[in-house]
Amino acid sequence: MTTQAPVVDMTDISISFPGVKALDRVNFRMFPGEVHSLMGENGAGKSTMIKALTGVYPIDSGSILLDGKPLLITGPAQAQEAGISTVYQEVHLLTNLSVAENIMLGREPRRGAAIDWRAMRARATEILDGLNLDIDPASQLGTHSLAVQQLVAIARAIDVQAKVLILDEPTSSLDVDEVSELFRVIRSLKESGVAILFVSHFLEQVYEISDRLTVLRNGQLVGEYLTDEILRIELVHKMIGKDIAVLSDLDRKERAPISEESEEAPFVQAIGLGRTGSIAPVDLSVYEGEVVGLAGLLGSGRTELARLLSGADRPDRGELSIGGRPRRLRTPRMALKARIAYSSENRRSEGIIEDLTVRDNIVLALQADRGWFRRIPKKRQDELAASYIQALNIRPPDPDAIVKNLSGGNQQKVLLARWLAVAPRLLILDEPTRGIDVGAKAEIQKLVADLAENGMSVVFISAELEEVLRLSHRIVVMRDREKVADIVNDDVTVGQVMTLIASGAES
Amino acid sequence: MSIRTIDKPTARPGFVRPRGRFNLGSRYTPVLVTLILLIAMWGVGATRYRGFLSVQMLLNLLIDNSFLLVLVVGMTFVILTGGIDLSVGSVVALSTMIAAFLLRAGWPPLVVIAIVLVVGSTLGMLVGLVIHYFEIQPFIATLAAMFLARGLCYVISLNSISITDPFFVDMAQTRIPLGPGLAITPSVIIAVIVVAIAFFVLHYTRTGRTVYGIGNGGQSAMLMGLPVARTRVLVYVISGFCSALGGVLFTFYTLSGYSLTAVGMELDAIAAVVIGGTLLTGGSGFILGSVLGVLVLGIIQTIISFEGTLSSWWTKIVIGALLLVFIVLQRLLTTLRR
Predict the structure, then answer these.
(1) Under 8 Å CB-to-CB from A186, ≥6 apart: which residues?
(2) CA distance A187 to chain B (A)
(3) Which of A76, A197, A226, B120 is 20 to 30 A from A53 in CA distance terms?
(4) A322 and A361 both lie in a single domain
(5) How far apart are CA B209 and CA B283, in angstroms?
(6) ipTM of model
(7) Cβ distance of A106 and B205 shorter than 8 Å
(8) To the nearest whole angstrom, how far is the Cα of B22 from the nearest Cα of chain A?
(9) In chain A, what residues touch B15 (CB-CB under 8 Å)?
(10) Rounded to the nearest 5°, which phi and psi values hold at B179?
(11) Which among A140, A145, A156 has CB closest to B6?
């Protein structure tokens, strides 16, 4: 493999954003017929690297060679023409158009000046068949699940006859079977000589699929390795550049079930709480200092339940009592008054305010809680920001940094800081670790455990069952927008929870 | 679970879209509702008034609204991208003024029409460039163009200029017979051609699909490598062109140029597009829906004029009420579709 000339050769690539040096003289190469994984924490520069290669960001310095020739691209369209296709982590397709159009637009078959719709659907069907995906190409993309949309994005990428295929976190919304299906497709593409750039936070998947690894840290190159020649533990060391004792530390902690032995009433108790068209009536109680994990697939009702508990949606049936007293939460503001904070899974659209600084984002909820006429003094704001930046290890440690220039993991930490600043008694975390690297993930998990130890109640939602099991005292399993199980977490295994998610009520 | 089963509707009882022929969540529903409304209004008119139930009455709808048909074509393109064009009425007025002024000065009519079309398209292009490259809200950019065009009218003349050019008079008076007792004007033919071209462009070209793609919002269309910049500017050129052409048809209709004419006509166009089922947020809607929207507005006017005793302001009231109903209906349907 290595005897071949690289198809992509990037040397000394640098890119900066205001206040952040995103890439600093990084080298990266890709060989035909090889899967190359780009590894690194959030903020390491993986996304920037990809966007440099696909022409979304112009590079400040350095050179990119494609097949030995300098690649001059000014945008995604030119990158595609040059044979570089990308599937982004968030599906960037047009949900209002048909599946066929999403695969073919840009190189649609024509008859004269007109789009040949019949040929387009036929070709789309062919490609979908190749992916073993049985959906109607004429159906609107938005009516399909995220996983299917992801596969359609890949279908689009393979149809261009790409020399280079970039897959940025393609598996984050797929289940196990879908992942193996995707890997089958990747392997067959690899055999046909395509160079594949694979980015994933799942180490298992990286080791399963890739031949070569490049590790980035803080915008700098750490090194390039063959997957067979580097141990996992070494790799993680190289990625986070520090000891990962925190991770194993957490596992050894005893998690005594709290609700069993507690004498007092639960902090939050929902009886038959539900909302038509959103979630079936649910009973749920959360005790003080307890972490309740919500497990279930995407769309199982996890988020819907969180929204009911936090006043984001209004329940139309059932009752909710907080601290023993019945309460109706009509708005998130009322929930906040009752000391319930909800950190949404949609970090971008329902969480951080991208154009504000780190400090502004952190004090936002606290300021709202105080009311707009009692401005938090500048000095107090600075103290708050400084203490949370330090406590949560937010990088860069600059309260004046604009949040959109931070990496996903650091944005998540800013969001957490915002909710911690209002000192909630119940903190609802919806996918707080999604798309976050190992180091930041461990930090957030440890933080959740510490918070609970200090008496805060936490509702913890995550697609990663290992994480839910590691943190929760009790696990509520959701399926098809219903609660199907409520189990105390003593020696529960991932397999057991998976069975519950799959078969539900039978057990 | 294999990949084939992940999208099976059986997986989520209660959250399945009906797959039958009648599907409330379909993209076509708003257009169907408009069609039903139009037929119902025609039916009501036909039972109440003599002479309402005639084909010529329908043709008259087209004759009286041919300029509006052309305007909604441009407006539909713009709104499909999620934009808005407030300059339409002013550009119509400017077009009538330029046409009347140049004709009075003795310019040949076809040259005059060409100049009017070029002016309208250029103005649209400027607006489009400003919107795309300076990332200005379409609302503000076209508001500026609206004032600009209206102001230019007054620079040409403060008074109404009548048109006596034989070609324009011909276009105003010619009736093209379609059968016994049936006739249309050349303007109707022009409007129908414009609608047909727009339909072709929107549904059978990459440009048209890109228009829908831009309306979906976000960066997707750009990241898919579709020509976003070019297309976004183009829709405002199209709207400018259609406004100018609408202005020409309007002069055929009124045989005069006047600075104060067509005030608020952009709002009629927007109303027709919305009643025709196009989402103001972009990405969803059909040109034929907009045509139905124009016919609904026209039939309201016709009914009120048949009624005789009612003030013509009732037209506005009914249109206002209808708009509200349609916007709420669209909201409900979009929620249903999720």
Answers:
(1) A35, A167, A196, A198, A209
(2) 17
(3) A226
(4) no
(5) 10
(6) 0.81
(7) no
(8) 15
(9) 481
(10) 165, -170
(11) A145
**CB distance A41 to A439 below 8 Å:** yes
Q: In a structure prediction context, what are the per-residue pLDDT tens digits for chain A, which is 507 residues long?
A: 446 788 999 999 998 877 677 888 999 999 999 999 998 876 688 888 998 888 888 888 888 998 888 887 778 878 888 888 888 877 788 988 999 999 998 888 888 889 999 999 999 998 888 777 788 999 989 888 777 888 888 888 877 677 899 998 887 767 777 788 788 888 888 888 889 999 887 777 888 999 999 999 878 899 999 998 888 777 877 876 654 444 444 554 455 555 555 567 888 999 999 988 788 899 999 998 899 999 877 667 888 899 999 998 888 889 999 988 888 888 988 898 889 999 988 887 888 898 999 999 999 988 888 888 888 899 999 999 999 998 888 888 899 999 988 877 888 899 999 999 999 999 999 988 876 777 778 888 888 998 998 889 999 998 778 888 889 999 998 877 888 889 988 888 877 887 787 664 443
Residue A1 lies in a domain: no
Q: Are residues A367 and A436 in the same domain?
A: no
- Output the six-digit token pair for B121: 């398209």
Last residue of a domain, one of A195, A225, A247: A247
Binding-face residues of A in 276-295 toward B, CB within 8 A:
none
The residue out of A185, A217, A247 marking a domain boundary is A247
DSSP state of B5: G
Mind telling me how many Å the CA of B283 is from chain A's nearest CA? 6
Residue A396 backbone dihedrals phi, psi, to 5 degrees = -70, 150
Q: What is the CA radius of gyration of chain B?
A: 21
Distance CA A221, CA A202 (A): 20
Could you give the CA distance from residue B120 to residue B117 in angstroms, rounded to a whole number?
Answer: 5
Domain boundaries, chain B: 54-331
Q: Which range of residues forms the domain containing residue A304?
A: 251-339+425-506
Cα distance between residue A337 and residue A319, in whole Å? 18
- The DSSP secondary structure of A203-232, one letter per residue, reads HHHHHHH-SEEEEEETTEEEEEEEGGGS-H
Burial of A220 (0-12, 13-18, 19+ CB in 10 A): middle
Tokens of A282: 């649910």
Q: Residue A349 is encoded by which pair of tokens?
A: 């659209």
- The minimum CA-CA distance between A173 and chain B, rounded to whole Å, is 13
Domains in chain A: how many in total? Answer: 3
Residue B311: in which H helix or E strand, if any?
none
Taking the Cβ of residue A114 and every Cβ of chain B, the question of whether any pair is shorter than 8 Å is answered with yes
Give the side-chain half-sphere CA count within 13 A for B334.
16
For testing the chain B interface, which of A56, A94, A503 should be mutated: the one with the most B CBs within 10 Å? A94
Residues A147, A174: Cα–Cα separation, whole Å: 6
Contacting residues of A for B226, CB less than 8 Å apart: 77, 105-106
Q: Per-residue b/e over B247-274, b at no fewer than 16 CB within 10 Å?
A: bbbbbbbbbbbbbebbeebbebbbbbbb
Is B186 touching A (CB cutoff 8 A)? no
User: Does A56 lie in the same domain as A112?
Assistant: yes
Task: Let me know if residue A39 belongs to a domain.
Answer: yes
Q: Does B218 touch chain A (CB under 8 A)?
A: yes
CATH at A19: 3.40.50.300
Distance from CA of B105 to the nearest CA of A (A): 41
E-assigned strands of A112-211?
Answer: 114-115, 164-168, 195-199
What tens digit of pLDDT does each residue of B10-28 get?
333 333 333 444 455 577 8
Q: Which among A93, A96, A481 is the top mutation candidate for probing chain B, defined by the most B β-carbons within 10 Å of its own β-carbon?
A: A96
Torsion sign over Cα A468, A470, A471, A472: positive
* Arch. (CATH architecture) of B54-331: Orthogonal Bundle (1.10)
Q: Does A93 touch chain B (CB under 8 A)?
A: yes
